[in-house]
Amino acid sequence: MSRRIPGHAKGDCQELRKRLVGELREQLQRIMSRARAIAAVLAGSIVGWTVTGARAEGDPAYGEYLASECSACHPPDVTDGVIPPLWLLPTGYFIDVLKAYRSGLRENPAMEAVARTLGDEEIEALAAYFAYLREQKGGS
User: Fold this and answer.
1) Residue 130 is part of a domain; what is its CATH number?
2) Three-state DSSP class for 80?
């Protein structure tokens, strides 16, 4: 014997179930789409770092000017903290991560806000500057 909830018809419950299943399907599709996009960025990045040794084409002097904002959170001389010094990051990774923050593929409110103000020229300049610092500090 099934129990009936007063004021609820059997059709109402079935309709609610259909709606919830539909919403869950949509959420799963969005998550999977985002996961595929992230996987594509990462795969392209890994290939770019290992095969081409990604080099920044930007202006290091312009990057130095722009980097003053970065150093507020990414101290250049602290290598044991949670927030990494940017000169330690591989160039291709740095570029891809900034673009991922800019597009919303990676989430961090502070980084998204900063990255959305940067165009490709600024990202390349920052990457060139941090690559220069890496070379000066004896990195590869």
Assistant:
1) 1.10.760.10
2) coil
Distant-in-sequence, close-in-space partners of 23: CB < 8 Å, separation ≥ 6: none
Exposure b/e, 91-127, CB count within 10 A at least 16 = b? bbbbbbbbbbbbeebbeeeebeebbeebeeebbbbbb
Q: How far apart (Å, rounded) are the C-alpha atoms in residues 95 and 62? A: 15
Is residue 125 assigned to a domain? yes
**What is the rounded average pLDDT of the residues 52-68?**
80
Contact 108, 41 (CB under 8 A): no
pTM of the model: 0.61
Q: What is the pLDDT of residues 46-56, one digit of tens each?
A: 544 443 345 56
The tally of domains found in the chain comes to: 1
